[in-house]
Design a protein that fits this description.
CATH class of the largest domain: Mainly Beta
CATH superfamily of the largest domain: Immunoglobulins
Domain Fibronectin type-III: 176-313, 434-542
Number of domains: 4
Strand content: 35-45%
Protein name: Protein NDNF
Distance between the termini: 98 Å
Subcellular location: Secreted
Largest sheet: 7 strands, antiparallel
Structural class: mainly beta
Number of strands: 35
Helix content: 10-25%
Organism: Alaudala cheleensis (Asian short-toed lark)
Signal peptide: 1-21
């Protein structure tokens, strides 16, 4: 807009103020004065920039007006205006004012005031109006003799919008283009996954390096623009990275945010009061499977096509889907005195359920942790009676009523698989598991080590039991794997016969003296050995002591 051209049309704007009094509503004297004050600052603050996206902040019930006029020299010039509400619905309209064909005579000012006002009013027309929160674009042809007024109003609360005016419709678009069919299709639904696909944007084919798709997943509703989604997340009390466009530059995240970057995908998970809000950018792929969802939960999915160079975006038509309901977990019946070996999948983090109906008032539950980390939760007739992380061999003695129903739920607390043995029995039932010493550690005596032998010791109990010792030659880089993968419930049947050293029986009624030692001979100098001791109870169920690694002396 040229300066000289602008001041030429300024009187027409003053006339427009009078026209608006008739076409919109009759303002008070104070509002007239305020409107004239705005017009006096028109060139500096109320002219809408051409070719630039403008952010406008609106106060509740206070209209905001912007003016624009296209450059001289073109009788008809195409232009477009795109308005993006970033929160609540707004009202906005475009009014066009055309200059009269002739000029009024100065001497006739007093006598023709009424006729001038009526004539000017006939030159003001509303060419577009809209109320809502969708992204709307108006395209029209502008005459060089016309000025335009844009008026925006929010009646719900303070908000902000973005407005993009352009008169250059040939050199490309600020916003990426949507396909003819902008819908998102749901092509697969699972218990924890939803697979989506959408048609490619024409912009992807033309500007593949600077365009990418970004997906937003939430449990509340769909969003009609990326700025509306960002505003909603911020209003929940969180800070959000500037935009998801999320050039893949790293952002400093808040404590409620988790960023995951894998396989060229940037995922940001926001913890909000209404559930998780996930943002995923997947480049130019137009099919995506959303993982790690909750079963039987409705999710809303929005896809945005984002220009990485300008941060401008366009929204596909959002969709929603409900994940499948989790099937009822299978419940295994526990029988009196029977030992059940349970293997738990650490990746799925699911509960394994066991049910036991009491035929006696006093019940014993025994758990032997074999591998990994396991959490146990026991309920009686639906009420919790025990819940803790297991360690070693654990006994629970519970007292209830006849025919009480106990539900035992087991879950691995780490990603690797875990396993545990479980037994339920009446209080008078002979235990299948052996009586354990205070510690299952194996001790070695450094001073008694030689190049060919090692002396170890371990604790016993007050009842006579069988103990078997095994040895295994290992390398330095095998120590961690051997110790981590040890199954505390496995018996000697899994060992090679050549690894067996001896078996012996012993006990002592005095727990302080229930200690035994053994010297293992025939070893090689400077060599690492893994030693294991197995304890067998009356029923033959083995309990494995913690493995011990000892190295023989290199020189003697």
């Amino acid at each position: 807009l040229k300066m000289s051209w602008f001041w030429l049309y300024l009187p027409l704007h003053l006339l427009m103020a009078t026209c608006l009094c008739h076409s919109i509503k009759a303002p008070t004297t104070s509002s007239q004065q305020s409107f004239k004050t705005d017009l006096s600052n028109l060139y500096h603050s109320l002219v809408l920039a051409d070719g630039k996206e403008t952010t406008i902040h609106l106060l509740k019930d206070i209209p905001k007006r912007y003016y624009f006029a296209l450059e001289e020299g073109r009788v008809l010039a195409p232009f477009s205006i795109t308005v993006t509400p970033c929160d609540v619905p707004i009202e906005w309209s475009i009014l066009m004012y055309k200059s009269p064909p002739g000029k009024a005579t100065p001497g006739d000012h007093d006598t023709q005031e009424v006729s001038k006002s009526q004539k000017a009013s006939s030159l003001v027309s509303t060419i577009f109006s809209y109320k809502g929160n969708s992204v709307e674009t108006y395209m029209g042809m502008s005459s060089h003799s016309a000025l335009y007024l844009l008026e925006f109003l929010s009646t719900e609360r303070d908000t902000h919008i973005t407005v993009y005016l352009t008169s250059d419709t040939t050199s490309g678009h600020l916003y990426p283009e949507l396909p003819m069919d902008p819908r998102i299709d749901v092509i697969g639904i699972g218990h924890t996954t939803v697979t989506l696909t959408w048609k490619h944007s024409p912009s992807v084919l033309q500007h593949r390096d600077s365009i990418q798709y970004c997906l937003l997943v939430n449990e509340k509703h769909n969003y009609k623009s990326l700025c509306a989604a960002e505003t909603a997340i911020r209003s929940s009390g969180m800070k959000l990275p500037p935009t998801l466009a999320l050039s893949l530059s790293p952002y400093l995240l808040e404590s409620q945010q988790v960023m995951i970057l894998s396989n060229s995908e940037l995922s940001i998970i926001n913890k909000v009061s209404s559930g998780e809000v996930r943002q995923v950018c997947m480049g130019t792929r137009n099919t995506y499977t959303v993982p790690n969802l909750s079963p039987n939960t409705q999710y809303y999915f929005d896809v945005f096509i984002v220009n990485l160079l300008t941060n401008a975006s366009a929204a596909y038509t959002g969709t929603f889907a409900r994940t499948l309901e989790e099937p009822e977990p299978k419940v295994t019946e526990l029988k009196d005195g029977k030992v059940v070996h349970v293997v738990l999948d650490g990746k799925k983090q699911k509960f394994y359920s066991l049910q036991y109906q009491a035929r006696h008032k006093k019940i014993h539950f025994t758990f032997q942790l074999c591998q990994g980390q396991v959490r146990v939760h026991i309920t009686r007739n639906g009420k919790t009676v025990a819940s803790e992380n297991l360690s070693g061999l654990r006994y629970f003695s519970l007292k209830g009523k006849l025919l009480d129903t106990y539900l035992v739920q087991l879950r691995s607390t780490e990603e690797s698989n875990s396993s545990v043995k479980v037994q339920a029995s009446p209080h008078f039932h002979k235990p299948s598991f052996p009586l354990l010493p205070e510690s299952l550690k194996i001790k070695s005596f450094s001073k008694l080590r030689t190049c060919r032998s090692v002396t170890i010791a371990w604790l016993g109990t007050q009842e006579e039991s069988k103990y078997c010792v095994y040895r295994k030659r290992i390398e330095e880089d095998q120590i961690w794997r051997e110790l981590q993968s040890a199954d505390m419930c496995s018996g000697p049947e899994s060992r090679h016969k050549s690894e067996k050293v001896l078996c012996k029986y012993f006990y002592d009624l005095n727990p302080q003296r229930a200690v035994t030692t053994e010297t293992i001979k025939g070893l090689e100098a400077g060599t690492l050995y893994l030693f294991d001791v197995y304890l067998f109870g009356p029923s033959g169920i083995p309990v494995r002591y913690h493995s011990k690694v000892v190295k023989t002396r290199k020189k003697c």
